[in-house]
Amino acid sequence: MDSKQAMNGKPSNKKIKIVFVLGGPGSGKGTQCVKIVEHFGFTHFSAGDLLRAETKSGSEYGTMIQNLMKEGKLVDSSIIVRLIQKAMLESENDKFLIDGFPRNEENRIAFEKIVNIEPEFLLFLDCPETELEKRLLSRNQGREDDNIETIKKRFKVFMESTLPVVSYYEQRGRVRKVNAAKSPEEVFEDIKAIFSSFQGNDIGYRQIAIEAKPEHSASLIKCCLPFLCCLNMHQRK
């Protein structure tokens, strides 16, 4: 039974592999995800891209998300997780990179509660703050004084909110760390070694047995509307 049937209210079984990809701002997550997709056949999702795609879809759900963003409010973790879940179910692939997520412990807990699985591992792109600052500033022409404060705030949020997620999975033996201060080519050589060692035999399949309930269905999105009124103060960038 395909994933679209599951989203329309029928049970479905789908075996998948999930790898979370985390790193500080400017660590090269997007660049490396593109390379992983090309070499290992994963499908790449990011929470931000999924939210933007939903707002552009013209759906009632997307309009409400867009309005929340315009008002400076934040979408509840449960909503973000359901968008990721929906994207995985509708994909023909069974291997997924989830980039920049979980951003915090609330994201992680919501993902495990709703999707009911853990990642195969978390790929952590480790890079010193000084190097991240240099990279981010080099992306801007001028106005360095205006940007440095914002960059430091982003790094502070990463340290306070995202590193605890890395620590959680590290305690469970699920973190694979690479030195992201190297050149992109050198970083990917390290990543290739990690994925090659897990490819095939060692990455075990996790099976999602999802009994599609109304709150899982995009067509019955009203079940999720209470969450759209939530202002999650812990999910600020």
Description:
The structure is a single chain. The chain is of the alpha/beta class and 237 residues long. It is 50% helix and 16% strand. The chain is built from ten helices and six strands. Strands 1, 2, 3, 4, 5 and 6 form a six-stranded mixed β-sheet that branches. Helix 2 (29-40) crosses helix 9 (184-198). The longest helix has 28 residues, at 144-171.
Topology diagram in text:
Elements: H1 3-7, E1 12-23, H2 29-40, E2 43-46, H3 47-56, H4 60-70, H5 77-90, E3 95-99, H6 105-114, E4 121-126, H7 129-138, H8 144-171, E5 175-179, H9 184-198, E6 206-210, H10 225-228
Parallel strand pairs: 1-3, 1-4, 2-3, 4-5
Antiparallel strand pairs: 1-6
Helix pairs in contact: 2-9, 3-4, 5-6, 7-8
Catalytic activity: CMP + ATP = CDP + ADP; UMP + ATP = UDP + ADP; dCMP + ATP = dCDP + ADP
Cofactor: Mg(2+)
Enzyme class: transferase
What distinguishing features does this structure have?
single chain; alpha/beta; 16% strand; disordered C terminus
Low-confidence stretches: 1-11, 141-146, 201-237
The radius of gyration computed from the alpha-carbon positions, rounded to a whole number of angstroms, is 18 Å
The main pleated sheet reads as: 6 strands, mixed
SS element count, helices: 10
Beta-strand residue fraction:
15-25%
Kindly state the mean pLDDT as a whole number?
79
Shape: globular
Kindly state the percentage of residues in helix. Answer: 40-55%
Run of helices and strands: HEHEHHHEHEHHEHEH
**Could you tell me how far the N terminus lies from the C terminus, measured between alpha carbons in angstroms?**
38 Å
Helix-and-strand structural type: alpha/beta
Q: What is the β-strand count?
A: 6
